[in-house]
Amino acid sequence: MKKVETKARTRTITWEDPMDALTRGADLSGLEFIRAIFDGKLPAPPITVTIGFTGGTAEEGKATFVGEAGEHLFNPIGVVHGGFATTILDSAMGCAVHTTMAVGEAYTTLEVKVNFVRPITLDTGPVRCEGTVIHRGGKIATAEGRLIAERTGKLLAHGTTTCLVFKR
Q: I need a surface site. Which of 86, 147, 149, 154 has the fewest CB within 10 A?
């Protein structure tokens, strides 16, 4: 097999200490915490910089993220890897659940299911991901999410999550 010569590309990212947000936000409700991150008062999680998306809006039981996939997220078949859609959906659905947390409560994801309905390419452009809580119980919360192409309004992927709620 002949090696193909390619022009190398680089990508440099920087991020803040992720434990800083957790420590400084310990006395905030879940909604206050997510809003503080989205407003830049607390540092954003490094995953948002790594993958390339940012917080949009947050209200009780709802969270949105916006982003745009670059070629650094391509898989070998020339489209954006499904991990981009899965990550932004997991973030929107998880943060929607997070907005329902009282001070001292936390959650962790137990399960995520994603359906990919359209490929994401460089031509897709900016995307918006909306997460909405379906059920918030004492121990279990569920949410759904939709990833939408901003230019066309077309659905790219959708998913659901189940989260375990516990005392911090």
A: 154
Task: Report DSSP state, residue 102.
Answer: P
Residue 4 lies in a domain: no
Pairing label, strands 62-67, 140-149: unpaired
Residue 29: half-sphere exposure toward Cβ, Cα within 13 Å: 12
124 forms beta bridges with: none
Whether residue 112 has pLDDT greater than 90: yes
Look up the domain containing 131 and give its range.
18-167
149 beta partners: 127
Residues with Cβ within 8 Å of 73's Cβ and at least 6 positions away in sequence, in order, are 51, 52, 80, 81, 83, 84
Strand partners, 44: none
Answer yes or no: is 160 within a domain. yes
Rounded Cα gap, residues 84 and 77, in angstroms: 15
Among 96, 87, 63, 116, smallest CA distance to 163 is for: 96
For residue range 81-93, list pLDDT tens digits in order.
999 999 999 999 9
